[in-house]
Write a structure and sequence with these properties.
122 residues, three-stranded antiparallel beta sheet
């Protein structure tokens, strides 16, 4: 439970920081060039935007904590790319092993396909 609350706070803070960087720094000149299209500063309700961001962060993190967290299975991946469900299946002399979640392994395979398309093996 504490882990999920800390995740909610982290999501809210990172979302707010990214919002500031994107809209307050990167797009500032674009917004200033089209100032006639936007509401005046006093009508923008920035407090409401922060509350909506907080509610969204709580909702997304709660969904993750309730449905995904704690249910990920682990795979052992050796240096040569072979996988097994426990360390005993890949024990051999000189083979380095690491434990990865299934989601991380899928992401790494997906990135490998994107970066080096000819290396796809389903």
């Amino acid at each position: 439970m504490v882990r999920c609350i800390l995740a909610m706070i982290a999501v809210f803070v990172s979302w707010s920081v990214l919002d500031f960087v994107i809209h307050g720094v990167l797009l500032k000149s674009t917004y200033e060039a089209t100032v006639e299209m936007w509401r005046p500063e006093k009508e923008m309700k920035m407090g409401l935007m922060s509350v909506v961001t907080l509610i969204a962060a709580i909702a997304f993190t709660s969904i993750y904590c309730c449905l995904v967290d704690g249910k990920t299975s682990r795979l052992v991946v050796s240096r040569d790319g072979s996988t097994a469900s426990s360390r005993s299946h890949v024990r051999s002399a000189g083979v380095r092993q690491s434990t990865l979640s299934c989601e991380t392994l899928r992401l790494l395979k997906w990135l490998r396909v994107i970066i080096v398309p000819h290396s796809y093996d389903p």
